[in-house]
Please model this.
Amino acid sequence: MLSLSSPWWLTGLAILPLVWWLHRFHGVARAMPVSALFLFQALRQYDSGAAASHRADPLWRLRALIIGSALVALSGPVWQDTSTAPVEVWVDDSLSMQALEQGESRLGHAFQQLIETLAPRRSRGIVLHSLGTPNQRLQIGPAQPMEQQALLREWRKIPVAEPHPPASTTLQPAALHYLLTDGADAALNRWSGQAPLQQLIRVGTATDNLALTLLSLRPALTEPDSWMGLVALSNLGKTRVMANLEVANGSGKLLDWPLDLDPDSSIAQSFRLHLASLEGLYARLSPTGPMPLDALPLDDRLTLPFTQRARLYIGISGDCSGYLLAALRSDRGVGITTLEDPRIEAQLLCGDSPLPSATPTIRLHPIVQRRLTTSAPHWHAAAGKLQQLLLQRVEYSSSAPQATPTQQLLLSGDGRALILAVGEPVHHIEIFLDMASSELTSSPLYPLLLSGLFEQLLQRSSDDEIIRVERDPQASRIAPLVGDQPALRTTPAATMAQHELSWILLLCILSLLLLDGYLSLATAGEG
Model:
């Protein structure tokens, strides 16, 4: 791109017509004596009263060119070249960019347009930035266009997150900034209107998409190896969609439902499964006809993250009540075994037998004489999440020691230590409550009390947890948002390589002056 640093070239608008006029209206340069005037009748017009010539000297064009070149040289001509400026490409690699259109993903179409845009230029380097994973980038150094295109085609990634663009003020001013996007993310569109972009490559026209957004399971409380599940999906397009929803694992389809969803609607489907293991469990959507379901197949399936849960094995010793054992067996995360089992992590000791030296233990002291607290017992801060259990008046043994500030109290009542911890970290827990009393065994909090005590002892949970996998429904919206294209910035001066052209014009002027002198001498010799 050519630019001039001063307006001297405007002077040529006045001077060049003057040069033509001076060469157009001029008199005879010299007198020429002849032997006989009648021999030169055709030249009578050149007598002393003759008018000036009506033809300009052809050399005026050459001299006008010399003067014009001099004026341009005085204007400081500069050639500004952007081909050597580094290019930083910001890639929207979100889920919607994986939508398939014409057999290729939107991301693939965007890269193809990028390659076509960069083909005419030989850049110093290209840096690709992932907007979904800000710490991921690819730097391509100076290379031949074919080598750069090969590297660009190889850069593909599975979407892991929605776009997180940097602050627009942090973009390097000395680079050309390109953005590849489909315009389906409102936050990214706002960023593109503020960032100093020189090029926007926007792809994608598809609008309809049906997406699975949640798959969740938890153990059923009534039957062993039974699970309660929930699957949710959303129609994010503007047309009605009919499809099939399946829950399956490696052995095949387990459940299926036909679906008929209105535009911009969501549903949740509950179900029950009888499975010993959740390994390989997934939900998927499939079309009801031969045509593909939608443009984005990546969100038509959710796979449940399976982790084989390690059970907490508890060794039992002493005469424990049937209520206590039944409550422990109701917890799927707990396995009751003998003291000889090498898998045991904790021990439940019912009685005043000596504590084992190494195994963390909960000891239930025998009831010497029952007493009923005069009010609800009090949980202490050391009890952690057990403080959420609201116990009523409880029965305890008269052998419970007096509560003192030096003890690590978990539960106290009537000035007695009803449950206390010993050791730091806790090595064993002493219980003086009557764990077989009807006040406790008839309460729905009874199993939670036991599991909470073992969690306090081992500092890990044995409760059943909900297993789930989900995605943000907005991440599956592929329709480009309606709005004006952002105003692109002109190339900043900092990115331009400037080449002075004055010295080239001076050489041309010198050559033209020599040519003018030669032509003038030649014309004079002919005369």
User: Anything to note?
Assistant: The first helix runs from residue 12 to 24. The first strand starts at residue 2 and ends at 4. Residues 46-53 have pLDDT under 50 and may be disordered. DSSP finds nine helices and 28 strands in the chain.
